[in-house]
């Protein structure tokens, strides 16, 4: 439990200062919250602790607690006892609230409160008030520290307002706050004497209530809100509002205690770096190891969301913070250090600059390539990199863009035909088929979003030229077969679903069998009112005759249009049937209604109140006209039968089906037939034919006195009897016969597939085999492992290497082909190699959080399983699956790591902690350089484990080394040498005028780095991050009179420092000689116009003139914008002629210098020579003349900022042009929708009209103009 804050600390924390004298003359007239008097429970008169007895009388009941005033309950005064030392304390209150301290709502004075506390707790209490500061100081004395603390809390409670705080605690921390059996929460309550409420989870509202620390005062006094502890970048977690009610300081004390509990629990966090610029992201990906190293050994996980351009970091809170800071620093670095270069390349070459090719460009040239989206017509790409790398980036981009042969195949037109051909190819996945047939070739089709607006549709075929030529030849052959083989049929998209329903599935499938025509319905979301017909060019029965193609397409078109007319002939009919007959229409459990609607459910029937009519006697039937007429007839017949009390439920029908289909129709455990019975409310019985019928059939198959084997078995029948209502019986019969017909077309085939490939073909959770079953409408059964008791076997007796495919003939053939293709692929890519490695190398092979093994998997494409060995095992088994190449690469990488571990040794070096940061260097660069000097690896991941410094906060100077023995020895020697050098390090100061610091540092620190490398010393200029960390210079006394801004610190070996100081002094330029001066008086009201927002001073400095001003204006550059007034005709643009173009546009004009600041400023111009001075004076005078003309200010307010980029133009080109043309100064605000125009009245009107013209032209682009 965290230590409680003292009352005085709480008062200072919450700034309860500045109240008037709170002594008895101060009375609060507002109604006070009643406080219970001593007689009703605040003081317990039976308590031996509060009122110790004066004589050792017998104690009733249990033995009371020992008194706080002595060791026992004897007399209070013991002459011979040693006197207890007094404990004292004091605190200051700046504001006192007595509204909650009264009795029964009556006001109470401060003196009465103090007497009440002294009576309740054995303390002495005094108070004094400083009338000037209005602060009251309380002095407490007691023989018991415990009593003193109780008295202090009681006094604070009586003199402080009651407040209610709401703390939003993460849901995961609630169990910790409550503690085992509520112990922790009880301790907080007992320590602070406040009420803490934690709601149950099931009572929480979706919102989290008040923000953390939000408070409202019960006494009407506002209370300060502490800062929320939740970081806005952290991943959001559900929170629970905890309510704390009590005296203000004690409530805040309880809140602090709870926040400490929350902080100890939330040691892990998740943060995101969002909105990473698109061109910066490629630079960050190769730096993953550097970001992980920033964790300094902390456990973190990095994940990338490329689409959202964000990186998520999860793990230890401190490590996550360091990694996020490292990522943000890298983002800022690349934002400022990289420049863009734009190139124009044909759109087809853009495909060669993405994915792995883009990564190779980054690795080779350290440049990122940003290409426009495929649907964007732009051919401009952007290369981002440092100025020194962009040239190499252009070279790398051009190499990749020309690294493969690209054939751009334009689809034949007109464009409508091109779209038909492309639709067919995409729907049958022909690009994949073509690429599979021609290995090494990639085929790309245009994005669907560009089909409608494109005038030409091209298919790109990429690869080596001989392979591309072969693919082009095959592609051309397909195009030739598709000439005259496509046709679009106009059919309203609203009826596509009806035509393409299960009811018509067999008919549409029959179009291919009868006419060799494929039917492609567009996606429903496209709302496209056309259906594509294609005479299948891949079918072996396809005719090359154009006449034959056209005839078959026309036949299918007629059938489809007829189906569309039938589907579109939708009507609604209301049948009035007395409500008492509705149950007969609906049937038990809706069975009769289900039979009327049918299996395809193309009808909608609403009965009674559901029909939404004025009477409940109505039955509403809606659907295709023919179906509606049929359903209405059946409803009327059912009602008529019910009226006549005909027993129609005894209607029976019998028919035969092949016996071999009975089991499939009945279903597992009778599930299918039970579902049919429940749906239609009929009784269904299956029975075999009698013996007589069998014998008769056997006679018929006898030929020449010999029985034909298998004849009877092939024609065995089962009889089906259905009993129930006639309509339901007929529907059940139709469904059973339809099912039998489907089964009659069913076939099965057993495929020989080695057992080792079964798991890959099945997929995770049956993913792949389920897709095949749904795609081809078949059932695929793999053998299961048989247990000793026989359970787990499949119904079919399959061997370990057999797979059963069952379904329609065509579906079985297609599923078989795809399965066998997959097996061939698996044979090539699913090789398995097993080997062992020493157990102690497993941890290194896996890496932190599996990072190393995952990297090997990603780089090689192999699947790797590591069997972690037991503690007593010397080796561990590793299984690698994949292609032979992938297995070889993965095994080599694993064994290389294992060999490194076997050859490693460890060592330690004592390095004082004050030198750790210096040796590590910025971003770990110092360590990298040290390892490189010793001949170590250059890869950052390989470097990561070589040198380990103690974690931040650990009081240790021990640095651990681990690696190859020779390298460890070199690193140890180098570290010891570096430590020795650092111990001999000195810090010296040198005076360098601050104006020359920038030149000595150089662009990007180039001059400074060169100087440090030459001399071996470190140089810190004022303002640098490490300036204060290096300590005070030894020669500080010699620099006592020097401006601190001019002192540069040089640290390192003394000889190196002296050499660096000598070079620095040699590079200091002598002060410029005294030049000529001149003065000119500038009215303060013209200051901003003359200075041109500082541009004038920069221009003067460019030719050696500096300006000193005797006074600066205090008022803003332009007068404030007047408030908008409705109906002000001069202040708004709402004329009838411009109503369409300027709706919501405001134009307000005010005099520029009407309320301008009076007074003048004398400008002193210091120049190197007389010519420069004359030139400067001329510029200032021209500025004064220009300022006098700036007589008016116009405020042009647009409805929104959408047009601002167009107004400003590329790099401000449009604004600059408008300034030159109008002579007015134009400022486009960043924070609102107002453009400020300053100039003469004519100039600002000209500028306004030009701006409005730009907005009008843009808004009207592509639209016709209406003439009234």
TrEMBL record:
Biased composition (Low complexity): 205-224
Keyword terms: Repeat, RNA-binding
Chain intervals with Basic and acidic residues compositional bias: 692-701
Extent of Basic residues compositional bias: 705-717
Region listing for Disordered, in residue ranges: 1-73, 198-245, 689-717, 1108-1137
GO molecular function: RNA binding
Keyword Transferase: no
Top-rank lineage group of the source organism: Eukaryota
InterPro entries reported for this sequence: KH_dom (IPR004087), KH_dom_type_1 (IPR004088), KH_dom_type_1_sf (IPR036612)
Span of domain K Homology: 161-263, 337-402, 569-640, 649-741, 745-824, 829-899, 903-980, 984-1069, 1190-1256
UniProt-listed PANTHER family: KH DOMAIN CONTAINING RNA BINDING PROTEIN
Annotated protein name in UniProt: K Homology domain-containing protein
The organism's taxonomic lineage, starting at the top: Eukaryota, Fungi, Dikarya, Basidiomycota, Agaricomycotina
